[in-house]
Model the fold of this input.
Amino acid sequence: MRNTLAGIRGFIVLVLAGSIACPQAVFAQTPPSADEIAHYDELFSAVVESNGARLKQLLRSESNIDRRDGHGRSALHVAAYFGNHDALRKLVTAGADANALESDYYDIVTIAAVANDLETMKLALSLGCRADNVTSRYQGTALIAAAHLGHVEVVKTLIRAGAPLDHVNNLDWTALIESIVLGDGGPDHTATLRALVDAGANVNLADGRGYTPLQLARGHNYNKMVNILTAAGAR
Done:
């Protein structure tokens, strides 16, 4: 695990230095593939096909509602990937674990957050999936993932839901830091940083190398972010 994290950090340093491009796939989740879907059994297929009547019928006799596909996804995870609200409600009502993690350690709130699917994420929260779950192989949170991607309304919703503002993932980054180092300095990431600052995120919590958010923003020439941080007392 230590070597894996060192490799990730090294890759990201190269990305930030501009030596290589940063494809979103590096940080992406893994939705069901066409081949996986083709081999799904009836329960999973009913979710994918949005066949609510069939799903309701199957749930009456389903003995293991949290069973997994080959990637560790339960039917609930698949419903989140497909934004199937009816299936999410039916599965949780039938006893599915709203806080279950799949093989990449994503829960349904983080799946929806990464997809910028605000309505699905709100539903997931209302069904009992917690905003403070530690998720992903980076041991982060849905808030960190959303901040990285600049999903402003998702970030604001997670803040209201009680997501931890200063959680540090295994890259030694908070949501605020990710909005800078994995952002583009544009309107969405700047608004994300603003939302985090306004909510009370620690503007002086440094990364693992000792760089503060203000130093990172200055290093990227993200002047609007610099102004927000400075006004909030960042050093």
Notes: The radius of gyration is 19 Å. Residues 172 and 210 are 10 Å apart (CA to CA). The chain has a mean pLDDT of 91. The chain has 14 helices and no strands.
